[in-house]
Structures
1.
Amino acid sequence: MLEYFDPIKDLGTKAILSETMIALEVDGVSISVPEGTSVLRAAALLDINIPKLCATDSLDAFGSCRLCAVQIEGRRGYPASCTTPVSEGMQVTTQTKKLAKLRRNVMELYISDHPLDCLTCPANGDCELQDMAGAVGLREVRYGFEGENHLSAEKDHSNPYFSFDPSKCIVCSRCVRACEEVQGTFALTIDGRGFDSKVAAGKDQDFIDSDCVSCGACVQACPTSTLMEKSVIDSGQPEHSVVTTCAYCGVGCSFEAQMKGDQVIRMVPYKGGEANQGHSCVKGRFAFGYATHKDRIKEPMIRDSIDLPWRAVSWEDAFSFAADKIKKIQAQHGRESVGGITSSRCTNEETFLVQKLIRSAFGNNNTDTCARVCHSPTGFGLKTTLGESAGTQTFESIRQADSIVVIGANPTDAHPVFGSLMRRRLREGASLIVIDPREIDLLKTPHLNQAIHLQLRPGTNVSLINALANVIVNENLLDTDFIAERCDTAAFNTWKDFISQAENSPETSETITGVSAEKVREAARVYAKAANGAIFYGLGVTEHSQGSTMVMGIANLALATGNLGREGVGVNPLRGQNNVQGSCDMGSFPHELPGYQHVSDKSVRDKFEAVWKVKIDHEPGLRIPNMFDAAINGNFKGMYVQGEDIAQSDPNTQHVEKALRSLDCLIVQDIFLNETAKFAHVLLPGSTFLEKDGTFTNAERRINRVRKVMPPIAGLADWEVTLGLSKALGYEMHYDHPSEIMDEIALLTPSFTGVNYDKLEELGSIQWPCNDEHPLGTPTMHVTDFPIGKGNFALTTFIPTQERSTRRLPLLLTTGRILSQYNVGAQTRRTDNMAWHSEDVLELHPHDAQERGIKEGDWLGITSRAGNTVLRAKISERMQPGVVYTTFHHPGSGANVITTDNSDWATNCPEYKVTAVQVEKVSQPSSWQKAFQISDKKQQKMLRDPQQMDASE
Ligand code: SF4
Ligand code: SF4
Ligand code: SF4
Ligand code: FES
């Protein structure tokens, strides 16, 4: 069979999946292609390149430009090859004098209304219009340029990243179709008719004021320089490119970093990337400027106290300063008095090294990762029920889903490229069930079919999932064959007895969740009766006191309905950060070595000890919250934090700050002076994803290559920094390249034994498990059995959180993310993404606002039992009365000053999603915010101006 997908060449129209092959001849050359393929694509597969303008292989064919006309034996006229499907025995001719004339005429009309400024145009050399003019041999334009034209149409520069110059537009509508078909936003239209037709954003607004979310799909699709990256306009066309992986979210999009020397000119989504297939969002596509931002830490720095100015030193001096301090602490306070935190933004190889350093050089298991505060319940819940701590599907699998359940996730903001794929499936007719206290944007998807929103009260997830299961059991919607064949019978029977009890009925649940029993019944039927039901969930599931219980409740639902082990179904955690799956896989947790192998298992330790040549502690170490408590109690004195801003991202900020202040040595490795670094004694410059080699693992378990496109700004990549520190601590590790680290990972991790860099080059990416049994990886998990043999139904008794609204604190605060910002915002706040979200605000329902006399934009004091902060009001119908919402992208907002240290019973994952608060109008920042501003100013000054800093200031 011919190549189905070409990552480089534009084959003109989309690939068609069909078993039936059709044979035809193009210019006398035979070819067989799947039924439904266009003539244009069949020819392109033979390297017969028919001129085209309105067609591109990421979009449905449109047939407007007529440039792709061909002759077909037995047919009259000159059909457009992009909209003509192949048929058996078809004889196509692509080059005749008549066709050449026809195409020249078409081009002539286009060019007669187009500026003739090719030599100074930013697209010069990368313009399909220019190419096609050459391809059809256009040499003159007979119509002159004097008549009516669009040459003086006004430009729109409102978007920070791309310009719109309508004078260059040929109204091919590729941009409009890209916005609809690929992105699913429908922000663009063709306004007017005939000569007056033009591309319009929103209601003929500037791009920045329209619904445009700046994904860049239209820019990518535009065959002219009408829609063009400003970076290309400013710096010229790139000269070379390197394929790498986005370092923002867990979708793991592949990009071509298009370069001029060491300068990134633009990031272009890579068609060959299996997670994104040529699509992108505003972060990966445009927000890369932070990598060269002036705030980057460029030299290692040390200081004896956090109240003293920093001293810039050599790498060697920084390593020995840090190592001396750690050794002294351990000599005085014991081996367990130090620990470290790995990064979910760094590569697998780097994370592996940090936990190895902690286990080998520190000699304990005091390692943890930010997944503690996001997806640790996923690990516990999925391992207990399905036997593996990971999502079960590929993203692409959603194309087969008939019912899509989204629980506590906001894919269009937090996982935008997957959100677009989801929207595409919803437009194709899949039904949608959203379980969320807020009305998320997915519910506003244009051309949505059936949508059910179960708008529950925060903190009541488990009651709702139990009620859904109750309906499935009581209405006999179970997949009894799947249960009999694939699940543990005793566990199922116990669960069935439990779940059918009245306490789990939709009626009882209604009194807890606020969602009507009837709606729950309807949703349960839609999910259970669908041929394929797929569940996707996010931090709105895990970040609760019953996060692990809820994950198990979700897995129970999938087991009960047989929605596992094939395409279109499954249980899929949407991972927040780029490598949160990888950081968990790589042994970041205190109880597990890489590959989720428990430290108490002697045979596992023997294996690692033989390779690492050290004794590994058999006791699990401290989790992050335990490290904080131990620090405050004086038993924990030293910490190595790589690429993680715990001072901003962890709950109960004042508690975290107290813990960090208690440390004798805090080593922070980061690209900026983040909030945690303000409490540090050693600051080691980090490197961005552009400055190193390695791999990230996305939410589909897909291991993607990260490739170095520029040298590390401070001289060393993150993995090299860990090697230097480890050596100074007396435990030397030898690797010349991250590929050697991956070889060691493969040696020690059963699910990675078949992974190596050569195979990654060959296959593009690999979904683990990849081993002898699955040499090419595993796109769909649990096809024939579970790693624990049979699927295990878990009992999921609903226990209300202690964090409840009271008379004093009558509202419930829940938190989340926004499209343009990422996590603690350290990267995106240093880009033009600030145009969309320059501050965190508090969203509240008009009813709650009115009750308190609050108007849009008022300053609001928000008080919880942990603390208080001040944010501006945003009045929004998306909230239900009694529930307020904010994001945590700006450190000065203090969102985590108010979140409490309640946490998941099994994993200590903080309950970010439920905080009882009161809200009132205020006129000045909170005392924490005032103190933050003073401290920030002081720390920035100590960093930038160490010589003149007065230590007593
Ligand atoms: S802006 Fe570009 S893609 Fe859109 S209609 Fe004009 S030329 Fe075509
Ligand atoms: S950038 Fe994306 S959302 Fe905005 S108009 Fe273009 S395709 Fe639509
Ligand atoms: S969806 Fe995620 S991985 Fe893809 S470009 Fe956006 S931030 Fe990057
Ligand atoms: S490319 Fe076929 S009509 Fe435009």
2.
Amino acid sequence: MVPAIVPEARLRHDAGMTVGEGATMARILELVLNGRKRVDAVPDNRLLLDYLRETVGLTGTKTGCDGGECGACTVLVDDRPTLSCLTLAATVEVKRVDTIESRDHDGQLSAVQRGFHEKLGSQCGYCTPGFIMASAGLLRRNPDPNDEEILEALGSNICRCTGYVKIIEAVKYAVALGKQGVAP
Ligand code: FES
Ligand code: FES
């Protein structure tokens, strides 16, 4: 589906904003966000991270380095872990985007969330949403990863306080829960 392109002036007017010099183009973005269809007016240069946090108000996805180095901003796009700080919102047109806010199931923690909670895989928690989404992406495509596969899947995520042993234990615990039928 080709996204509708509309002048930013109209979008800004619709949003109650004034039109500045050098206005860029914008579009109507349609996607499935955390299982629900959404339609928003989005400037072409809007990052997915800013769209999620500022346009939608889902602040669970964190801004860390803002440059593709830390993984704090990781979300799933069509089940693939994706750095939202390096992704334009326009590129997720008609795709499925899942954020940390989608992780619990009817109030029950997901297997990965339980792993981080019960194995103490989190201290300050700032990196945790990114780790959880990267881990969930791994377990969706490979429910029984070995140590090497876990390390590779989390290789783009940085934690400055927990230490990675606990985080790896958390993912292994999630794998064990997955074998009992708990969703990742
Ligand atoms: S904020 Fe995106 S990788 Fe650090
Ligand atoms: S728990 Fe603090 S940065 Fe990872």
